[in-house]
Specification:
Two copies of one chain form a homodimer. Chain A has about 180 residues and is mainly α. Chain A folds into two domains: about 50 residues, Orthogonal Bundle (Arc Repressor Mutant, subunit A); about 110 residues, Tetracycline Repressor, domain 2. The first copy, chain A, is about 70% helix and about 0% strand. In chain A, helix 9 runs antiparallel to helix 10. Chain A is elongated. Chains A and B meet through helix 7, helix 9 and helix 10 of A and helix 7, helix 9 and helix 10 of B. The structure holds a DNA duplex (19 and 19 nucleotides).
Chain lengths: ~180, ~180
DNA sequence: ACCTGAACACCGTTCAAGT
DNA sequence: ACCTGAACACCGTTCAAGT
């Protein structure tokens, strides 16, 4: 008779996310993930083609969660920025993973839509995409540098984030509306 | 009698950089690096404590090279941005490596100095650090997203980069001088 | 149908032994 | 003094054999 399944894709991805966040990518081994869901490593290959596919699933799940928080924060740009930063602080490893070449590009498309919508409301449809790319590039770079510990020259990081957001908005508004 | 050395740290790092750029981090194995400099893997441990130390040396060499190009481009912000982008395009893997947590934070400090100097000339010393962080965060994030293939919604990427730089400068100038 | 033990290839790393 | 063969631990992955 057909044997009932002993775990689920969701449980596997959840276990992988925990291991990733706890010990970085090196800790996300097939054996460790399998152990967490009560199975042996070879069984995982029934669900994911290989480790890269599992990483992609983790990235995708992370992007979906982020997208949901963006959805709740739009169309308030400072709120979007705050949500993004808090998410990166809480899941630094998953945050990094999302922007890894092999994995993520597609997973992000949907989650970024609330950002485009928000920015479009500020600068108009014509520059919406360019402006969204400006804002996401800044925030993503800032958080990546912050997480990597690259801000070593002192100063208040929170204040630098506020300054960046404020200055960015000033530039967006100045560039879109009439000049003075 | 003392055996003459069969390679140098510089040659090892150069070989590592080539392998990294050609095949990503996974291709940078101790055996492959050793093979490229005509030696066996265990010999590398005389020069670098472990693979992570070698990666750190690669990151450091990359950051130094980038710093030299920044030095030549300062204090022209658009020129700095163009140099940065060209460097990222030509060495995407090394560029990514620089911002990996375990490796790089310190290697960047010196190379970023020309950027701070340039930005200070635009907004004054008071906001120099915040403004430099805004600019580097934007550029780094943009390039990372571009390299990762995350800009999938169409549009002209070159134009988006120009737009970002222009808008950023507008914000910086508006925020520093008197308002209107 | 699903799971696993055993096996293979590959990698990082150590160390005693070579020259 | 420097280098290396051999060995060890560990990982990703495959597959025939179990239930």
């Amino acid at each position: 008779m057909p044997t009932p399944t002993r775990t689920t894709n969701e449980a596997v991805v959840a276990a992988a996310r925990e291991l990733l966040e706890a010990g970085g990518p090196a800790a996300l081994t097939m054996q460790a993930v399998a152990g967490r869901v009560g199975v042996r490593a070879p069984s995982l290959y029934k669900r994911f083609q290989d480790r890269d596919a599992l990483l992609a699933a983790v990235a995708s799940a992370t992007a979906d969660e982020l997208g949901a928080r963006f959805e709740a924060a739009a169309p308030d740009l400072p709120q979007l920025a705050a949500v993004y930063r808090e998410f990166a602080h809480r899941h630094p490893e998953a945050f990094r993973l999302i922007f890894t070449a092999s994995v993520a590009p597609m997973a992000l498309q949907r989650s970024v839509e609330p950002v485009i919508r928000t920015v479009a409301g500020m600068v108009g449809e014509d520059h919406a995409l360019d402006a969204a790319r400006l804002v996401t590039a800044w925030a993503t770079g800032f958080l990546q540098l912050e997480i990597a510990g690259a801000f070593r020259l002192g100063g208040d990081i929170d204040a630098a984030f506020e300054y960046g957001l404020r200055t960015l908005i000033a530039g967006l508004v100045a560039g879109s509306g009439r000049e003075c």
